[in-house]
Amino acid sequence: MEYRELGRTGEKVSVIGMGCWQIGLSKNHGDWAGEVASLRRGIELGMNLIDTAERYSAGRSEELVGEAVRDCRDDVFIATKVAPPNLHHDAVIRACKDSVRRLGVSHVDLYQVHWPDPAVPIKETMSAMEQLVRDGLVRYIGVSNFSAAETEDARAALARNEISSNQVEYALTNRSVESDILPYCVRENITLMAYSPLARGRIVGSIPADILRKYAMSPAQAMLNWVTRNEQVVAIPKASSVKHQEENASSVAVRLSAAEYDKMQQG
Fold it and tell me: Is 111 a catalytic residue?
């Protein structure tokens, strides 16, 4: 597994992490067991970055992540997110404490604002985030779905800490962040955490066959390899099965050439 520093934190996270959207959505306990097994397999394969949110499956996602990391908390980097209805100061504090409880941990490594809310002053939200860092419940602060300008506002609202990451949608089929957000993250050394890097299952069928043959890759693996070609990017594909987790984990075992990445984009 390849690892990269998260922002300026000094923390090394896996280039391919594990996204937990919809994990726990099923009412079937057997499905939950399979999802926990998938997360544990990912950890075994070196995928130390796990991303969830209080909104995912009404908190069940966080609970299943907690179950998966119960015996290996020190080996993983847990990221979760506070939802827009909870961005006022006291609500942020309560939401984080609830997430910590559901995860069954003493702290979260990265706490992210899930979506910006213009109705809540960003300074109020960031004040709460910094209090959580001081209190030891959070190690690092991130944002999600923020524009470059909104990220800059969030940074300016912090007195002692930094914004370490911005989690946004990014895939071979959705490159909108390349016009503004990605260049900003590169310039300011903020990690871009790519969600839905496999385009929500709409795997590209036009990836050149010669590239897939040369590297013995599936189209999904090629997409993950492409989206993490920039040193400032890590990806968090969802994988609720052990088979998909193993496929994702091996997607960056080798790197393509710049010409091959360009060829994929043209395809």
Answer: no
